[in-house]
Write a structure and sequence with these properties.
By secondary structure, this protein is α/β, with parallel strands linked by helices. The chain contains 6 helices and 17 strands. A hairpin with a 2-residue loop joins strand 4 (101-107) and strand 5 (110-115). Helix 1 crosses helix 6 and helix 3 crosses helix 5 (240-247). The longest helix has 16 residues, at 206-221. It is globular and about 65 Å long. The structure holds flavin-adenine dinucleotide.
């Protein structure tokens, strides 16, 4: 049996919920299909000590402020999960879970959404599947010869299981810095970054990143010079645990090694460092496999968009993956605006 909706939103993390909020305001019928068993999207999966890089009020979706977490300027991931759980309930967003979307297909004037528990037919689809589900590992010579443990950010939980071990953490972004700071006190840590780590000034956090992303978008839209966006500020927000580890001298980074050995890594000058585990904090790619049947893939694995709308399929909108789907759209505070634009555009087409 095929179920019908004006709009199917794929993914019930923050981006999917923000879409739902604005679709409701536009009076459009919709359903949100989410593969997770419980609310909170990727925030449910992160390491225990993760800190958001913005204070609570600056980590809010449209319509409802995130309350401060008692005793913490920068909330933890559970606080974000609680916030999204409450948000979904408060706005009575119609989220069905766990429902995994397997593919989106053209079907005459509509789009067909195939899931692991049935089929939907929609006039438009918003894809909001995030990036966490597609971890990226760089290619490195001799990856297979290393006899120790290799894991990605997505598999790391806490320092407990690494106590006393020799651990190499690779990555100069927020994940790499936070996980290195987490491990530094109890392990023999080697932190490796491709270029020297760039900490943002201690008084700069996600608020400034959001402003920088917005200013860049504005400049590009009006034909002004590229301001450089968030990249111009630095890579690592010095949230308190990172700041403390850095100030204690525990966060000094080595440049990249050349290859793996049976029991560690080898540096360009031929010296070797032994390791029990290597943790790759090397980022993510957009989780877009459900869109493969539409044949829209462009350069860098992205799908060309005008705003949030896919250029090659105007009934499809993409939300939350990064600046290419709206400035700071891969953040709690930033996804509201592109969600509003997507909902407005879809509502306009449905009314026409
Ligand atoms: P997700 O949270 O990943 O939600 C997507 C949902 O879609 C998931 O529930 C998933 O199960 C579901 N899904 C995926 N595929 C399918 C499918 N085929 N069918 C059905 N459902 C599917 N942002 C901030 O604002 N502040 C921060 O401090 C911050 N810190 C971050 C730290 C880390 C380590 C990372 C990785 C990101 C951070 N971000 C931060 C960025 C961003 O806010 C989060 O990644 C956020 O989880 C993105 O939300 P989303 O809704 O786009 O994706």
């Amino acid at each position: 049996m095929t179920q019908h909706a004006d709009v199917v939103v794929v993914g019930g993390g923050q981006a999917g919920l923000a879409a739902g909020y604005h679709l409701r305001r536009q009076g459009v019928g919709f359903v949100i299909l989410d593969a997770q068993a419980t609310p909170g999207g990727a925030w449910q999966e992160t390491w225990d000590s993760l800190r958001l890089f913005s204070p609570a009020a600056y980590s809010s979706l449209p319509g409802r402020l995130m309350s401060a977490q008692p005793g913490e300027t920068y909330p933890d991931a559970q606080h974000a999960v609680d916030y999204l759980t409450d948000y979904e309930k408060r706005y009575e967003l119609p989220v069905q879970r766990p429902v995994r979307v397997e593919g989106i297909h053209r079907d005459g004037r509509r789009l067909r959404v195939e899931t692991d528990s049935g089929r939907w037919s929609a006039q438009a689809v918003i894809s909001a599947t995030g990036t966490w589900w597609r971890p990226f590992l760089p290619s490195i010579p001799d990856r297979g010869v290393f006899g120790g443990r290799q894991l990605h950010t997505v598999q790391y939980r806490n320092p407990g299981e690494f106590a006393g071990q020799r651990v190499v953490v690779v990555g100069g972004g927020n994940s790499g810095a936070q996980i290195a700071a987490d491990l530094a006190p109890t392990t023999d840590l080697t932190w490796v970054t491709r270029r020297p780590p760039r900490f943002l000034a201690d008084d700069i956090d996600g608020r400034a990143l959001f402003d920088a992303a917005t200013a860049r978008r504005r400049a590009l839209d009006t034909g002004d010079a590229d301001t450089g966006g968030v990249a111009s500020l630095g890579d690592i927000v010095a949230v308190p645990p990172v700041r403390e580890a850095r100030d204690a001298g525990l966060l000094t980074a080595q440049p990249m090694f050349t290859h793996l050995t049976e029991d560690g890594v080898e540096w360009p000058d031929g010296t070797r460092t032994r390791a029990d585990a290597i943790i790759w904090c090397t980022g993510f790619r957009p989780a877009l496999s459900t869109l493969a049947p539409l044949g829209l893939r462009g350069p860098h694995g992205h799908i060309p968009t005008a705003g949030t709308r896919a250029v090659g399929e105007p009934r499809l909108h993409l939300l939350g993956y990064g600046d290419w789907t709206g400035p700071a759209s891969a953040t709690l505070i930033g996804v509201g605006r592109p969600a509003r634009e997507a909902a407005r555009e879809i509502a306009g087409v449905l009314r026409a």
